[in-house]
Amino acid sequence: MKISCERNKFSQSFQLAAAVASVRDVRPILQNVKITVDKSGVLLQATDTELGIRIYVEDCSVAEKGEAILPTKLLKKILVESDEEELILESSGDKTIVSGSRSKYTLFTQPVDEFTDVESFGESAYHEIPANVFSETIRRTTFATDTDNAKYALSGVFFELLEDRYAAVATDGRRLAFQEGAAKCVKNHKVETSIFPVRTLQVIERAIANSEEPVKLSVSPNRVLIQHGKTVFYSRLLEGRFPRWRSIIPNEDGKVKLEILAAPFAAAIKQAATVTIEKQPGVTIIFEKGKMITTGSGHEVGDSAIETPVAYDGKKKLSIKIDPKYLIEHLRVLPPEQNVKILISDEGEPLTLKTDDEYIYVVMPLSA
């Protein structure tokens, strides 16, 4: 195997594959990246058995076909530290040589036949979602998962893929993030229950950033295949029962509705939370005529009160105590100029936040 490639582009693809490679010692071969050079081009593969990637590298010139195992940590470091514009990778036996005009590295490698190839995308039935929409959905949901239990249903994002629609939901039991939107259904690919691991979604988000190509998703009972351009991801799905999330989202009946921009809302929460302490994390949001007052308090620290103008007629004074972390994490994924609709009712009821692009966020209040 022998190729020459533009270092920057090869490095980007290799680092994406390296992010998938196993960090465990169960099968040491999987801590590496496999490279295959044939008439189709230059293919990189990596997997930890739970998540896998197949990625074709652009702008490579093939001098000799073949395949090899590339040591992830060493080659990643070489690619990052090198200032060469072009590199040559040549493999023979148990060695891979990486060379440029002023540098040369000889790396010892493992037998290629010990590596298990990642499944390719050959599906005829799938859903298609624009990359920018899918990326936004990932950012708007993954933060609300339960990070303490990595193997259970609440640690992932629940997806519904229906006729011309998709829905993504995440919850940790204290808050819920829901994004819905349009999707193209090809050959009757409909899936009502699938839970995607957060790590899978985060790696995909990194791969599709700033792309206009659509993302194809094909789900079977235990796994999902996702294709974006010449990159394919394989991922096992999480097992377990997801909550009846539709019943958790409150309807708008009887709710007071008002609107505020994301930036001043986030600023008020952060400022009020300045004096709070770990044992007293809550901030109280009070709505009065024409204003929102956000207060915080910390024992032996002090108090805060931040006033923000809002369009509220004040017929009924309303207040709710919320963990500021849950609001800050939500508002962080919105553009500063995003208009947020606030739905609030009596004390003890959840706070619901909506945007005009079918994004809903529900937060349970803290006890007063």
Question: Can you walk through the features of this model?
Answer:
With 368 residues, this protein is of the alpha+beta class. The protein has three domains: 113 residues, Roll (DNA Polymerase III, Chain A, domain 2), CATH 3.10.150.10; 121 residues, DNA Polymerase III, Chain A, domain 2, CATH 3.10.150.10; 114 residues, Roll (DNA Polymerase III, Chain A, domain 2). The chain is built from seven helices and 26 strands. The strands form four sheets. It has a nine-stranded antiparallel beta sheet with strand order 6-2-3-4-18-17-16-10-14. α3 runs antiparallel to α4 and α6 runs antiparallel to α7. The longest helix is centred in the first third of the chain and has 12 residues. The radius of gyration is 25 Å and the shape is elongated.
Question: Can you give me a brief rundown of this structure?
Answer:
By secondary structure, this protein is α+β, with helices and mostly antiparallel strands. It contains seven helices and 26 strands. The strands form four sheets. Strands 6-2-3-4-18-17-16-10-14 form a nine-stranded antiparallel sheet.
